[in-house]
Design brief:
Helix content: 40-55%
CATH topology of the largest domain: Rossmann fold
Strand content: 5-15%
Radius of gyration: 18 Å
Mean pLDDT: 91
CATH superfamily of the largest domain: HAD superfamily/HAD-like
Largest sheet: 6 strands, parallel
Order of helices and strands: EEHHHEHEHEHEHEHEH
CATH class of the largest domain: Alpha Beta
Low-confidence stretches: 1-8
Structural class: alpha/beta
Number of domains: 2
Length: 246
Amino acid sequence: MPVRESGPRFLEPLLGIVFDLDGTLVLSNHDFGRIRAEVIRVAQKYGIVPGHLSVHDPVHRIVEAAREEFRANGAPDGTVYRFEAEYRHRIDAIELEALPRTVVRPGAAELLGALTTRGFRLGVLTRASETFARKALVRTQLDGFFPYLRSRSAPGPTKPSPEALLLLLHEMGVPLDRALYVGDHLIDVECATRARVRFYALLPDPSEATASTMTEERFLAAGASAIAHDLSELARHLAVAVPRAA
């Protein structure tokens, strides 16, 4: 388990573990290219100049760039509110199209069961909508493990803002130096390191579109404290015994 020599000091043992959802615990294979293109289409509808936003940027960067251009152009607050409402509505609808093909990531139920038995407080922090997140957990039979969940539908900042993670940990009653965030994307490690919470990277499942770009080197450079190739290896990092799947 690679461990960084510098950074915040953490206390042992861990008390709470927050997981990203899609790609980490469930596999949905969202059409992120379509989602990004739709956000840009909506932004242009409300006055953003074509070509100013890139489909290659993650959604939160596209939205931030649109907001900056709205402010620079003196757009009325009503225009910005309508843009926000419409792009969220469109993303929600596209996300739900993936629900029928959403499956549990191998090893998730066994790992979460072992962590629950050991008494860890478990939560989910996701950029998915509340509706998709709840339904995906029910569909994959993981809902019973998570009394705490924060989605992009929650009031206040969303991931990768560190405030999103801090708000969830406060709700869980977990001190920052006794917490861990687990995710499969650089957005996740950005959120954790800015919040000064330790982060373990889970490499994407080979079936995921990001499998070739989310590498060990990139995660370590971004601030990950450890890397796991799959959930079974993550269980070993966390020193929990996971029952062998039938």
